[in-house]
Write a structure and sequence with these properties.
The chain is α/β, with parallel strands linked by helices. It has eleven helices and five strands; from the N terminus they run αααβαβαβαβαβαααα. The longest helix has 20 residues.
Length: about 270
C-alpha cells in the first residue's frame, strides 16, 4: 500500500507507564483537543455526503453504516439513537458490524478480514440503489468494509466513508469519502481514542444534520422524539409549554392525547 497510516505511527509520548495519573490525563486531553480541528478540515467532505444522503432519504432510501470493531460499534450507536431522538422508523438508519450482533460486546476473530460477508449482510437488509452505505474504518484498510463498498459501487449504491488516513484504500473506494487526519494516538495504534472520537463527532454531524434537513427538528427541539421514559415525557411537556400558552397539567394531557410534541402543538393551534 502506497500510503502512510498516520494512525499507526508512534505516539508523541514515551514511557507512559512512568507518568502520574495527572500527567496521563493531561496529555490525553491535550491530544483530544486536536480532534475537532481535524474534523473542521473535513467539513466540505461531510457536507457533500450529508447532501447526498438527504437527497436519497427524501426519495424513500435508507442509511447504512458498516464497520468492524470500534468503528462498527460507533455506527450501531448512532443508528440506534435516531429513532428515540427523532421519531424515525428503526429501519431508516442501520448499523451493521462485522461478525454480527455478538461482535458488539466481544471481538469476533477474523470477522473484519472477510471480504464477502459485508455484501451478504447488506443483501439481508434488501439493500438497493435507493440507499446510502457509509463504511467506517479508522485505518481505511478493513477488508470487510472496503469489499462491501466495492459491491455497492458495482450496484449503483451511493457510498461514503469515515476514515482517519489520507489516501487509504477505503477513501479511494468511497464515492463520498470523509478523511479526518488525527495523527498518532496517545497509545500507539489505539484507534479507539482520537480516531474513535473523530468518527463519533462525524457521525453525530451526519445523522443530526440529515434529520434536521428531513424536518425532524423544529426550532431547536426534538419535537418527534419517542416518549420512552418519564424524563422525556417531562421534557416533552415543557416543549409544549414553550410553544403554546398552556400550563403543565394541560400540556401533559395534550401530550398523552396526541403522542408527540409536534402533534400536540399542531392540533392545539388548529
Amino acid at each position: 500500500m502506497n500510503f502512510t497510516k498516520t494512525t499507526e505511527q508512534s505516539s508523541h509520548y514515551e514511557h507512559l507507564e512512568q507518568m502520574s495519573v495527572k500527567e496521563l490525563l493531561t496529555n490525553i486531553n491535550n491530544e483530544d483537543k486536536t480532534v475537532p480541528l481535524a474534523v473542521e478540515k473535513a467539513l466540505p467532505q461531510i457536507e457533500a455526503l450529508v447532501a447526498k444522503t438527504v437527497e436519497k432519504l427524501k426519495l424513500g432510501g435508507r442509511l447504512f453504516y458498516i464497520g468492524a470493531g470500534t468503528s462498527g460499534r460507533l455506527g450501531i450507536v448512532d443508528a440506534s439513537e435516531c429513532p428515540p431522538t427523532f421519531g424515525v422508523p428503526f429501519e431508516l438508519v442501520n448499523g451493521i458490524i462485522a461478525g454480527g450482533d455478538k461482535a458488539i460486546r466481544k471481538a469476533v476473530e477474523n470477522a473484519e478480514d472477510n471480504r464477502k460477508q459485508a455484501w451478504i449482510d447488506l443483501q439481508n437488509e434488501t439493500i438497493s440503489a435507493n440507499d446510502v452505505v457509509i463504511g467506517i474504518a479508522a485505518s481505511g484498510t478493513t477488508p470487510y468494509v472496503i469489499a462491501g463498498l466495492e459491491k455497492c459501487n458495482e450496484n449503483n449504491i451511493v457510498t461514503g466513508c469515515i476514515t482517519c488516513n489520507e489516501g487509504s484504500p477505503l477513501a479511494l473506494t468511497a464515492k463520498y469519502p470523509i478523511v479526518v487526519v488525527v495523527g498518532p494516538e496517545f497509545v500507539t495504534g489505539s484507534s479507539r481514542m482520537k480516531a474513535g472520537t473523530a468518527q463519533k463527532l462525524v457521525l453525530n454531524m451526519i445523522s443530526t444534520s440529515v434529520m434536521i434537513q428531513l424536518g425532524k427538528v423544529k426550532g431547536n427541539k426534538m419535537v418527534d422524539m419517542q416518549l420512552s421514559n418519564d424524563k422525556l415525557v417531562d421534557r416533552g411537556v415543557k416543549m409544549i409549554m414553550s410553544e403554546i400558552p398552556v400550563d403543565y397539567e394541560t400540556g401533559s394531557k395534550l401530550l398523552k392525547i396526541h403522542g408527540s410534541v409536534r402533534k400536540a402543538v399542531d392540533n392545539f393551534k388548529k
